Structures are given as structure tokens and as C-alpha cells.
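[job 4471] stage=fold_predict status=RUNNING
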Amino acid sequence: MLSYTLVNGLAGLLIVTSQMVILAKTSRDSAKFYAIQSLVLVLIFLTLAKIQGNEELYLWSVSAFITKVVFVPLVALKVFGKLHDEKLGGGGGLPPILSIALSGVVVILCFVVVLGVSLPGAASIKPALAVSLAHFFLGLSCIVTQRNILKQVFGYCLMENGSHLTLALLASGAPELVEVGIATDAIFAVVVMAVLGTRIFQKLQTLDARQLTSLKG
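[job 4471] inference complete, writing C-alpha cells
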């Protein structure tokens, strides 16, 4: 019989996959790892739907699979695969050991924060809730620490996945329209940022965000 233990375990995999996205050597690899992470998110939705008998979450699972597991990674592979800045390598951010250590600190702090949360039905999903909160901040740290513009796009995607999980855990009864709005937001954001990243690379021949600090008239 399915239980919230499985939900919490799958949520833990999100932290692992987020590190894979951040530390991947190429944007193509990041796209693949993001697809894997999104598949884990879909499995969480399906597990919650089965446990709670919530039909809305089944619909969430379908739309999340189409948008996050299939569409967004395909866009990233199609567009980002043409762009590569050898100087930045995996992203030009923190060294792997520091990135992992930062993730550990973020997760621990989020667990401490969530321990003080007292909401109806939240007791059994506190580990998953802590992961969803940590996931948001991991995405934010990716945007802040990575110099590679494309890696910053994936940081946004990580933030969006964290927000999506939080909504599923605390407001699973929300109408399907809400979930569709979130998924659609991710699609358009990635498409727009992919176009901008391509134009920047064509103009400057670099994906280094530090090169965008000054404007020329």
C-alpha cells in the first residue's frame, strides 16, 4: 500500500537530481537531468493522487509530464545544444564540493523551518515540504552563482519545480486551471529565455552573464 513515506523518498531524489542539473558539464546534460527530475515530480503527483484519491492530481501528472518531462527538455536540447562557451565549461559557478555543501546547508535550514509548521495534514509530508522549499532556494542559488546564462535558465526551472511541489503538497485540491497556468508559465519562460540566450550568444559569442553588466548606446 502506498504511503507518504514513498512521497518523502521521491522528494529526496529531487535534491539529488537538482545537483545533477547544476553540476552537469553541458546544457544538454542539464536538460536531460531536468527531464529525469520532472519525471520524479510526476511520480510524486501520481503517488499523492493514489493516496488521497484526488483526481485533480492525476490531471496534474498528465500536464506535468507533457510540459516538464517532454516539451521543456526538447526545447532546451534543440536550442541550447547549438550553444557552447568553452570558457565557462559546466557553468563557471561554484566548485562541485562547495555547491554540494551549500545544498546540504539549504536543505538542513529548510527542515528546521518546516519543523515549526503546523498545518492540517502536513505532519506526514514535512520532509517533502522541506525539500520543496529547499528546491526553490537551490534554483535561486543556481541563478546567483552560475555565470552561464543557460544554467541560470535551469535555475529558474528548479525554482518552478519546487513551487509546483509545494502547491501539490499543500493545495492539491486546487483546480486544474491553476496547475496548467504554472506549467504554461514554465514553457513560455523557457522559450523566451532560450531565444534571448541565443541572441546574446550570436551577438557576443559568449554565455557569460558577467559580460552583460554594461549597456552600449
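[job 4471] summary: Residues 20 and 101 are 14 Å apart (CA to CA).
[job 4471] exit 0
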